[in-house]
Amino acid sequence: MTEKSEQAEKTEKVALTPTTHTTPPAKFSHGVRKGNILQVAGQVGFLPAEEGKPPTPAGPTLREQTLQTLANVKAILEEGGASWDDVMMIRVYLTDVDHFAEMNEIYNTYFEEQALTAPPAARTTVYVGLPAGLLIEIDALAVLG
Amino acid sequence: MTEKSEQAEKTEKVALTPTTHTTPPAKFSHGVRKGNILQVAGQVGFLPAEEGKPPTPAGPTLREQTLQTLANVKAILEEGGASWDDVMMIRVYLTDVDHFAEMNEIYNTYFEEQALTAPPAARTTVYVGLPAGLLIEIDALAVLG
Amino acid sequence: MTEKSEQAEKTEKVALTPTTHTTPPAKFSHGVRKGNILQVAGQVGFLPAEEGKPPTPAGPTLREQTLQTLANVKAILEEGGASWDDVMMIRVYLTDVDHFAEMNEIYNTYFEEQALTAPPAARTTVYVGLPAGLLIEIDALAVLG
């Protein structure tokens, strides 16, 4: 609690790189926190990074990728001292309108417990192109308090 | 004014569910406010919710859907003690590049009065897939002050 | 410094219109700042505005458009008293998945120097439709401190 409050006072920008993630391969951060604002970069369903192995999706299915993507977002939130309870906005990018119902079902089950402790985040879902093999991408904006 | 200031002090996350909206069917909020940050979830052109009726678009045209979508965003802003004047960013998702000119015209007329009292929000418009029958989706980020 | 701190205290919303940009043709702002939050609207690769000339892309290539788009975002950040160091999130919209590697290379070179002074921003890249002739659009959220 005290630790969290102290973090909230900081106004310098801090990169969030959980141990499950590689050092970003490009000039972006997996997440950043500045003061009470925390932004998570677009996450996809890659398994936790392993030295010397290329990024590998958790599996070919929407379920596997959605759950892994949510785990990846969560790792960054926690690295920044936040939890799903602090998340204001979740942006879901799907590649196929026909995936909406299944994603929603997975999403609802995933957030069932979270929704008991704080209102769930707002959300926008749109259908875009993603790199081959990826079915979902998610980013998130959190406000710590 | 005093009420608004009091709300601005709150740091707990509050779900915004205007009476025109259903209780969210999934684990997301139509809008959330925490402190002075208010995020509106992606809205589409559904008419105000009626008990026992499925969500129904205001009509098949871009004009009908755009105006209804803007009304839906506005209802959430107001539920959170905000107005269009507080909005920093509006994200417009269209399905068809050919709809841009008409959307812009509707948008400009809609915000003509608002722009007299505060600078209009920043905006990004991109062209994505949306569920069948929906031509526009809009979300918004507001900062109350 | 003192000037920057004073700006940070302001809670009124201010439109950011750099001299390189036209007065917005529609009811949106190229950027807005309110308190310590600065939002840059979706920028594309248009050259600095010239009286009486229509908006003109910097060129047909991804490289030309990416560099011009980044310059346009930067101009708005600076108009609001911010720099890339303050940017939390950069949203990159490409039209073609095959452009990712090249965009990334240009992006990495562009931000090489910035990354020495502060963690680079989080980023989401998705593939959408854009108006004919435009290959990239970028918007950004900054938190000043």
Automatic annotation (TrEMBL), chains A, B, C:
SUPFAM superfamilies: YjgF-like (SSF55298). Its EC number is 3.5.-.-. InterPro entries: RutC-like_sf, YjgF/YER057c/UK114. The keyword Hydrolase applies. GO terms for molecular function: hydrolase activity. It comes from the Bacteria. Residues 1-13 have a biased composition (Basic and acidic residues). It is an enzyme of class 3 (hydrolase). The keyword Coiled coil does not apply. Keywords: Hydrolase. Residues 1-30 are annotated as: Disordered. This is RidA family protein. It comes from Streptomyces cellulosae.
